[in-house]
Amino acid sequence: MLKDDADNTALNSIKGRNPHFFTDPNIDRLLSMVMELASEMSVMRDRLDTHERLAATKGIYTEDDIETFRPNDDEAKAREEWRGKFLDRILKALCAEYDNKTSTNP
After folding, report:
1. What is the CA angle 37-97-99, rounded to 5?
2. What are phi and psi of 54, to 5 degrees?
3. CA–CA dist 48, 82 (Å, integer)
4. CB atoms < 10 A from the CB of 64, how many?
5. Cβ–Cβ under 8 Å, residues 33 and 91
6. Over the stretch 46-66, which tens digit does the pLDDT of each residue have?
7. The dihedral sign for the CA sequence 87, 89, 93, 96
8. Treating both helix axes as pointing N-terminal to C-terminal, what angle do 25-58 and 73-104 enclose, rounded to 10 degrees?
9. 59: left (phi over 0), alpha (psi -120 to 50) or beta
10. Residue 104 pLDDT level (bands cut at 50, 70, 90)
């Protein structure tokens, strides 16, 4: 549920990196994660669409080539590194909260 404007003026003038819109901060964290995923998916979809259209127009590779492609060791390692960084970005709100809690508790 959205915070009441009387309780929080952040809805009227958002400043800083982590605005809070909901009474439960976990909902804000989840929303942040979902929006990061949506942003990433939108960019990836546009890039994929561009590649597929260029390939079809120029006859560079086929859909079957994509379906049967298997990355070599270096390519698989690069994908794994990207995936790790991506997950770090997605989970940063949760990790920051966990780090804050563990650093304040002995």
Report:
1. 115
2. -65, -45
3. 16
4. 8
5. yes
6. 999 999 899 989 999 888 888
7. positive
8. 170
9. left
10. low
How far is the C-alpha of 61 from the C-alpha of 64, rounded, in Å?
8
C-alpha Rg value of the chain to the nearest Å: 20
DSSP, collapsed to helix, strand or coil, labels residue 104 as helix
Q: Any residues with CB less than 8 A from the CB of 18 and at least 6 apart, and which?
A: 28, 32, 93
CA-to-CA dists, residue 63 to 11, 47, 59, angstroms: 47, 16, 11
Short-list 38, 25, 24, 49, CA closest to 89: 38
**pTM score:** 0.54
